[in-house]
Design brief:
The chain has 108 residues and is mainly alpha-helical. The protein is built from 5 helices and 2 strands. The chain has one domain: lambda repressor-like DNA-binding domains (434 Repressor (Amino-terminal Domain)), CATH 1.10.260.
C-alpha cells in the first residue's frame, strides 16, 4: 500500500498474495522474518489479523517487493494482483538474492 498502512489487509489477502507470488509458507515467513506457524494463523483471518501490526506489515512489504499489489476494499471488494508477470517476478527475486549493496530501486 502506498502509505504503508496495512491495517485493512485481511489474512486471506495475505494468503492469496503469497500463492500469487509463488511462495510457500516457509519462504514468505523467512523473507519477512515471521515464524511459519504465525503466518499460517494470520492467513486464516477473513478480516484484518489480530497479530502484531509490525508482523503483518513485514509480510505485506515482503510480498510487495515481489510485485504483489494489495487492492483495498471498495465497490468490487478487496483483493490482490501482480504488478509484474511471473517471469519478471522470478527475475526480481533472483536479483534480491544476488547480494551487493542494498539500495532503492526504480521499479514502477
Amino acid at each position: 500500500m502506498a502509505n504503508g498502512d496495512y491495517s485493512s489487509i485481511t489474512g486471506r489477502q495475505i494468503g492469496a498474495a503469497r500463492v500469487l507470488a509463488g511462495l510457500d509458507v516457509n519462504a514468505l515467513a523467512a523473507s519477512a522474518d515471521v515464524p511459519p506457524d504465525q503466518l499460517r494463523r494470520i492467513e486464516t483471518f477473513a478480516g484484518p489479523p489480530t497479530a502484531n501490526h509490525a508482523m503483518v506489515g513485514a509480510l505485506c512489504e515482503a510480498l510487495e517487493k515481489l510485485g504483489v499489489e494489495f487492492i483495498p476494499e471498495g465497490r468490487s471488494g478487496a483483493g490482490v494482483r501482480l504488478r509484474f508477470n511471473r517471469q519478471q517476478t522470478r527475475q526480481i527475486a533472483g536479483w534480491e538474492n544476488e547480494g551487493g549493496a542494498a539500495a532503492d530501486d526504480d521499479i514502477p
